[in-house]
Design a protein that fits this description.
Layout: H1 2-17, E1 19-22, E2 30-32, H2 50-57, E3 62-63, E4 69-77, E5 81-84, H3 90-102, E6 105-114, E7 120-127, H4 134-145
Antiparallel strand pairs: 1-5, 2-4, 3-4, 4-6, 6-7
Length: 160
Amino acid sequence: MKIALTILCMLSAVLLTGCVVVPVSSDGKTYGKVIMREQVRFIVPGQTTQAEVTETLGGQFRDSPRMPVLAYAWEKSTIGWGWPVGNPPPPLEYFFKQHEKNEGSDWRAFFVAFDDAGKVSRTKFVRLSGGRSLDEQLENWAQHCGVTSISGSHSGNSTK
């Protein structure tokens, strides 16, 4: 009975969603510096300095040579792949294209912007897109937040 129910559930999933999901082995590794929300609670915009951020969170970050921003980025392997069965309906075409780009990874970052005095002005946890570089996404976020140009006190550290 359990086997029949399992087969029925899998068949229903394929027929209802038009997608076959196949589990894929994951190496379980994480690449980069993972930052958790609990680790950044010490940050107070307008008070916490860049030196305090990098001293507390570490030097494994990527910064911009053009803007006073930095990112701690990490990537985790994920499990599971989905492929459309036949042609997906038009509203789902974008979903399947995006799903193919992710290719079994979850790329995230913690972005930090600094004001002219070198103090934190904004922070944000983000899910990164595989279609653009970390630098491009960091600087686009900074421009969206109103960060304009680099100040003279920027550290210049840069790692992958």
